Amino acid sequence: MNQDERQAIARTVTGFFQELGAQLEEYSEGRAVVGLTLTEKHMNNASSLHGGVTASLLDIAMGLCGTWAASAEDRRVAITLSLNTNFTATAPVGTHVRAVATCRNAGHKVFMASCDLLDQNDKLIGFGEGVFKKGAYRKDLP
């Protein structure tokens, strides 16, 4: 998938993804990588990565990896049924993190995925697993 195709897919991921400032770095069948350079708005009161941002990045990447489509027109949304998040390290402002998600098993309607959140040195910041339902086509939603 070239950069233009990846950007077209990224434009279909609306709402909180865009508010976070996340970027779709890789997207292929069964795999998605979502990146984010941390700013002050991503921090908690202890000046390290907020757990809600970690959980959101894992959720977004896993939802994308199970709804892969070659074109933006064919991408479905993912509905999170279950999300398990584990926190392993902190990350300060300026750190570039990547949520690297892999689809572990997929049926017609439900899929399972796992995801690692890594910093620019591949240090594990957090990880998780989720169960998702394939929803409507993104093009059919407001």
Automatic annotation (TrEMBL):
Pfam families: 4HBT. It comes from Halopseudomonas oceani. This is PaaI family thioesterase. InterPro entries: HotDog_dom_sf, PAAI_dom, Thioestr_dom. PANTHER family: 1,4-DIHYDROXY-2-NAPHTHOYL-COA THIOESTERASE 1. The keyword Nucleotidyltransferase does not apply. CDD domains: PaaI_thioesterase. Residues 48-124 form the Thioesterase domain. Keywords: Hydrolase. The lineage of its organism: Bacteria, Pseudomonadati, Pseudomonadota, Gammaproteobacteria, Pseudomonadales. Gene3D superfamilies: Hotdog Thioesterase. GO terms for molecular function: acyl-CoA hydrolase activity. It comes from the Bacteria.
